[in-house]
Amino acid sequence: MDLNREALREIIKEDSRIVFETIEPRFLSDNLGRLKGRADVLVFPVSQIEVSGILKYAHENRIPVTPRGAGTNLVGSTVPEEGGIILDLSRMNRILELDRETFTATVEPGVLLKDFQAFVEGEGFFYPPDPGEKESTLGGNISTNAGGMRAVKYGVTRDYVRGLEIVLADGTVLQVGSKNVKDASGLSLKNLIIGSEGTLAVITKCILKLIPKPEVSFSVLVPFKSLNVGIRNVLTILQANVNPTAVEFVERKVVSLGEEFMGIKYPRPDAGSYILLTFDGRKEEVEASAAQARKLVMEHGAMDFLLLEDKNLSDGIWKVRGALVRAVEAVSEQEPVDIVVPINQSDSFIDYINQLEQDSNMQMVSFGHAGDGNVHLCVVRGDRDEETWHRELKENMKKIYAKAYALGGLTSGEHGIGISKRPYFLHETPKENIMVMNQIKKALDPQGILNNGKSYITANHT
């Protein structure tokens, strides 16, 4: 690989936006910082023209390119394994347009989720996708098809992407999708890019769907003696069509870690587990839905139905839920996992995890999105030495993923595959599927320069 510094400087003309020798370690990793890559140059483009120029140069010289945004991913998706160019899009962070008549906003990929949500809500609109990491970029959310707590009612990021401007590996610029609500005009190239983790193209502009801001929103905490009873109640709630915005589950032993980490206490510490619900919409409708939900859960084993009317209490409850991964990390190194199973198999999967925890003597902390079967799991290292930790982790992860697939589940619900999940994804996914994915990769990136070694890409891609 021959990287010509002067050629790159012709494209990125400001010295402050191109780094050669002194690349900070955080740009070589992900949010966990354990997987370390290497790179020859870090560039910060500020326009589609610069992105196109960089990719054209990399394509012609067969130089690897690793796109990244805020680097908040947890599975190594932004780790540059092959050296080359890190393409950091975080400075392409402008909200370009709010189109009230089409209920869309057009933004650059580096806009942070929290900033975008605050902006549109200030204008009377609502952007429902709500992954736990609010410091993530919208381009990163699209690249992993991020989900979050509101997916049970509103869906995931894919459901709110109307159109994209993308740059292919050879620098070609495409417009895929549009502001139109409906589109049956040829293959959906837009949907091919969503969730592809930067392996097929680089996103430089996003057209996002908005909805009217809900009139009211409030949360409810429902304690249960056991998680199994709680999960069964989730199915009852969903079947009754009370339309909750979020349905989260968490065991008491997990809440205790979060309480200690955040200095916030949950009510009803005598519970074995909790279901955390949110309702939003028109005031009279959500009040009626909450009342119906209360009647259902109290008839089916709930210990209480706590309406979180105090904003400080409600915010605290959600802060503990949102900080659970960090709470575990503060105690010990851990492997964060986000497996998805059919919603009626959530309790069976968690039962299996609890049994495996006992059998393996490896702590496993589970919580997640009960409304869509997305189980978040922290597999905890404890006091194991490095060799024992990696060996036992690998053994247990194989069992965990095999069980998920046996129940009809999948490798990831919202984190993506990256490097960390790749061996399990390749093992459990039919070879025919992998072959087709790699054929698509080869068609869009014939030189194999975009984010190689991630997700579905096999060793013999090129």
Features:
single chain, 462 residues, alpha+beta, Uridine Diphospho-n-acetylenolpyruvylglucosamine Reductase, domain 3, Alpha-Beta Plaits, 3 domains, 7-stranded antiparallel sheet, 15 helices, 18 strands
Instruction: List the total number of helices.
Output: 15
CATH topology of the largest domain, by name, is Uridine Diphospho-n-acetylenolpyruvylglucosamine Reductase, domain 3
Helicity level = 25-40%
The CATH level-2 architecture of the largest domain is identified as 2-Layer Sandwich
Spatial ordering of strands, largest sheet? 15-12-14-13-17-18-16
Mean pLDDT: 95
Shape: globular
What can be said about this structure in brief?
The chain has 462 residues and is an alpha+beta fold. It has 15 helices and 18 strands.
Question: Can you put this structure into words, describing what you see?
Answer:
- With 462 residues, the protein is α+β, with helices and mostly antiparallel strands.
- The protein has 3 domains: 1-213, Uridine Diphospho-n-acetylenolpyruvylglucosamine Reductase, domain 3, CATH 3.30.465; 216-324, Alpha-Beta Plaits; 332-417, Alpha-Beta Plaits (2-Layer Sandwich), CATH 3.30.70.
- The chain has helices at 5-11, 48-61, 113-122, 138-144, 151-154, 189-193, 227-239, 252-262, 283-299, 311-322, 324-331, 346-360, 386-406, 422-428, 431-444; strands at residues 18-19, 41-43, 65-68, 85-88, 95-99, 104-107, 125-126, 161-167, 173-177, 202-209, 211-212, 216-224, 246-251, 273-281, 306-307, 334-340, 364-369, 374-380.
- The strands form 4 sheets. Strands 15-12-14-13-17-18-16 form a 7-stranded antiparallel sheet, with helices on both faces.
- β5 and β6 (104-107) form a beta hairpin.
- α8 (252-262) crosses α11 (324-331) and α12 (346-360) runs antiparallel to α13.
- The protein is globular.
